[in-house]
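I hope you will forgive my troubling you with a question about protein structure. I should value your view on which stretches of the chain appear to form regular backbone elements. Here, with my thanks, is the record as I have it:
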Amino acid sequence: MIREKSCGALVYRKKQDKYELLLIKHRYGGHWSFPKGHVEQGENELQTALREIKEETGLDVNLREGFRQSVEYYPKPHVKKQVVYFLGYPENDTVKKQEEEISEYRWCPLEQADSMVTFKNDKNLISQAKKFLIEKE
């Protein structure tokens, strides 16, 4: 069994008292999800998440303490992948997408985000993020 690990984040902003979530459409696969990528040697989970968000979106993000969700799935036979997600907000919300990997991006109202993402794991993550943000307000 080959094990892979990636880290990323659900990136949100608040506009007129409403939360919006940044969704990216992956150029390969064409699914809507969140910025994430493989852990590089010498990095911890937080460093990986921040680097990948910056590479894919151009955003510098502040990660919220107390939100860490992990999902596991099998992208190919004999490959088990773990993805660790954090929750964070950008210092500014001007996105510069990484053309090689991202075909589109969208700031989506949090209430509609789960209908936009492709995978059930992502729908669950959005639900956890909503719960976290409501509790912390």
